[in-house]
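Per reviewer request, we include the raw input and output of the structure prediction for the construct analysed in the revised manuscript.
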Amino acid sequence: MVNKADIEIIRRMHAVEKASLQFIRLVESHSKLGPLQQGKLPGQGTQTITLGINIDSITKKVQAVVTLKLVMAYEEGGDHDPPVQVSATFQLQYAVEKVPRQRQLLEEALQQVAMMNIWPYWREFVQSSSVRMGLPPLPVPLFHVAQLEKLIPEQGEKKTK
């Protein structure tokens, strides 16, 4: 038996079935190496993600802007100036054959697709930036499909960025 969540996923996937990725651009980046403890690397990492979608019904283009930030700190805390910070903003553009009447479906589906498209670029960016700061490559975990649902609020919930 098909449940309500499965139907919603199918509806979202139909919304982007004919979407094609046109480009991915790094539009802004920042890396900062702060004070490091002697012989010890920071072990606590916090990532934040901000994602915005803009749909142009006339040109049938969709712009996604994804800003990601990684802050590494020591487990003891007390870091007013975190030892490692890396952030990047990526712009993605998609072409769609048609914009559905329920634009929210397209927006929600493209949020998920954009995250799947951008994640390998983000991982590589963090690793190469950390090496250029003289650190070992910082591992960013793979992005799992289960994490996608966390990006889309349940019906009635408010979206926060």
